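Worked example 2:
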Amino acid sequence: DNSAPEAEAPRDPYPAPSSPAEYVFGRPGEFARDLELLGTSPRRVLLSVGASAALGLGGNFLGVTSSLLSTLPQDVVAGSGIDAYYPVRGFKRYRSDELGYEFV
């Protein structure tokens, strides 16, 4: 018998996910492996996302900060004075402690 043994088919390194949760969140350890391949850490990713969110909220990017402040009660927003920096419900407050006036 001169026939060579048949070689096994190569295994798929990325088999199809077995559940919808595995499709969305990945397999255990897969995220850590991907971060290692990228040469980064979960801490660096978290800091980047946090800094981006802080810049976006601080800069009122696309009006997100104003929209979030509009969901709060008016007395809370007016009492904090944050409405002097960001428009809330379309209005921005102007205050002068020196001259004793306040405009909405």
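The chain has two domains: 15-58, 60-104. The two ends are 96 Å apart (CA to CA).
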